Fold:
Amino acid sequence: MSDKKASNQMWGGRFASGPAAIMEAINASISFDRKLYAQDIRGSIAHSEMLAQTGIISAADQEKIAHGLNTILKEIEVGTFEFSTRLEDIHMNVEARLSDLIGSAAGRLHTARSRNDQVAVDLRLWVKDECFRVAEALKGLISAFLERAEEHAATVMPGFTHMQAAQPVTFGHHCMAYVEMFSRDLSRVRDAIERMDESPLGAAALAGTSFPIDRHQTAKALGFREPMRNSLDSVSDRDFALEFLALAAICATHLSRLAEEIIIWSTPQFGFIRLSDSFSTGSSIMPQKKNPDAAELVRGKTGRVTGHLVGLLMVMKGMPLTYGKDMQEDKESVFDAAETLDLMLAAMTGMVRDMTVNAAAMKKAAGSGHATATDLADWLVRTLGLPFREAHHVTGRAVALAEEKKVSLEKLSLEDLQSINPGITQDIFSVLAVQNSVKSRTSFGGTAPSEVRKQIRTWKKRIAKA
Ligand code: ARG
Structure:
């Protein structure tokens, strides 16, 4: 039996050439960490400048290094750079090419540095940039909601609890609930940026270095507020990635709730909204259908984003300090969550901007199901001085009577209502109409159009400054 055949039998298939091929496949991260090329080169240039300024390397070598790195950047950007799996990751791919280009000076770049602090700084830079992208996208979505809210500050719709029509609210008020939710997401992004704004570069492998480096200089050059204070923590920390995934998962959850509402509202049974053709598809077999695919995909992709958070939490939970190769598993979750969230935010902003609101259908639904029963009870308390529990009981009898007569509450006659409580007067009809019910809820944060408009004004100013 030839050697080749023996190894084929042992390892089979893709790994026919044996342990070396298996190790290369499990060890390499270049297929995904090449995404960090710009950050890697930026970090290396900043490091080399600091090495030259502190006299650790010569200015001439630094110039060669920087020139070589800029050449590599261009090669990657135009697509002529050859990535090699054998060279494992982006750091070694770039360094090997630098050596081809400038010779021995390339070997000085890695002085007082390790791939452990290098990868930590690269990923931090990438996540920080992504956080700024998410913040901008969130501002776009919030602005879309503010516009719809303004347009529909007085458009009545049923408000739901338990998915049962509860009390009338306005569509503008409903939109503003999402403004609150996405603004919290925005503040989570800002908080996360604040905490991740520290540079791990210069921690070297884990213990710091005996070279007289200046970590404040590299931190500043890379746009970080300051260097991280503990070298062990610098290379072992992945909180910034976890926080990004956590805020992404919470934001995705908000988007998913919205997607679910859009799906329900756009059914012919509800008919509250109509999605534009750009964000829906027809059925290949049922010509009457218009499917809310984009919303369904937003709802579906939420599982994936949350999965990435849970995935990285599981990777990190068993890690003793400091670096371990397990941490190479941090990148794909972060990249995929970022790409997915960016797309979800873009799709949702488009849907909110483009959807047609059917105010008549909303109003009709708001008036059904005796939605103003609470208003009747409140009127009995306010005007006749009934204790609320008793008013609730009287209202229950009025609802039963309306059901018996197959009419809505506001269509009962004054005589009908007086047969339940003789104190009731004509004035009751001023609260039984949905429009009046909504107008009367002027408590802070309530659904009255006047209140909703106040909130819109406040948020418009805040978002302009955010
Ligand atoms: N590719 C590695 C990662 O993504 C880079 C750091 C490697 N460090 C090491 N000591 N092997 O985490």
Q: What stands out?
A: Residues 1-8 have pLDDT under 50 and may be disordered.
